[in-house]
Amino acid sequence: MAKQADIAGKRGVRGSRTGRPIMALLDLLGRRWTLRIIWELRQEPLTSRALRTACDEASPTVVQARLSELREAGLVELMPGDGYRLTLLGRELMERFLPLHHFAERWSRRS
Amino acid sequence: MAKQADIAGKRGVRGSRTGRPIMALLDLLGRRWTLRIIWELRQEPLTSRALRTACDEASPTVVQARLSELREAGLVELMPGDGYRLTLLGRELMERFLPLHHFAERWSRRS
DNA sequence: GCATGATGCTACATTATTTGTAGCACAGGA
DNA sequence: TCCTGTGCTACAAATAATGTAGCATCATGC
Question: Which residues, at least 6 apart from A31, have a Cβ–Cβ distance to it below 8 Å?
Fold first, then answer.
């Protein structure tokens, strides 16, 4: 399993070697489209194309790259025939983000 | 300069016009270093340089750009003499992220 | 006054990443 | 067979980040 290698290899998750998992996580989630992808998968599995559509037609290059990273990170998995879905761990993460929806509404009404 | 233009103009926050605030928020938070900056400000105000240091010496260009965006978004504010700190709104957002610390620990121990 | 050091912030060339478009191989279904 | 949809890749152009240097301003010490 080259999981740690892939993610700590070419680019790696910043901070993954610092012994501060939170930094690695923030780096992973802070890459473009990552949060959005997780968000779009919150309710049901989506095929790679449905996911691209849901993400405002983001380019397949990034979406595919992010999906690889998220799969390496154990947050997303591919179910052949059914598309991508959040893993148990991924759903757990998602649950921490759900209140964000509520916050975003109030945030958008700021002066 | 061109602050409003930076965030609502040339590029803007993706999804800000879709009537889906959550998308705009996810886009904002999904830019490199944004989450990390918010995280580093969670406890105390930091000067721009202290912030750079805390963020593994990220380049001043990005840090400054992110700070501008976050100030525009009303999540961070500059207190002359004391550096940057989260606004009330920003702290509210931070509170939703605090459980992430706990999650990150478990996540890093995944098989 | 004058240097010193810290602040917020910018310039700019190099490097990395994203975008947009096209396309591949494979697996059903008609 | 010819469609259509899947996951995924190639590649050039556009965009963003990095790393280094430096600016103007302000406060302190001398």
Answer: A66, A69, B30, B32
Q: Which nucleotide is nearest to A65 (CA to C1')?
A: D8
The per-residue pLDDT for A96 is 87
**Residue numbers of A between 59 and 98 with CB closer than 8 Å to B:** 73-74, 89, 92-93, 96-97
Does residue A31 belong to the interface with chain B, where contact is any CB pair within 8 Å? yes
CATH topology of domain B3-108: Arc Repressor Mutant, subunit A (1.10.10)
CATH of A31-108, one of 1.10.150.450, 1.20.140.10, 3.30.700.10, 1.10.10.10: 1.10.10.10
Task: Give the CA-trace dihedral at B7, B59, B35, A78, to 10 degrees.
Answer: 100
pLDDT level of residue B2 (50, 70, 90 thresholds): very low
- Of the listed ranges A86-90, A107-111, B41-45, B61-65, the least confidently predicted one is A107-111
Whether B52 and B61 have beta carbons less than 8 Å apart is answered as no
Q: A interface mutation test: which of B18, B31, B103 has the most A CBs within 10 A?
A: B103
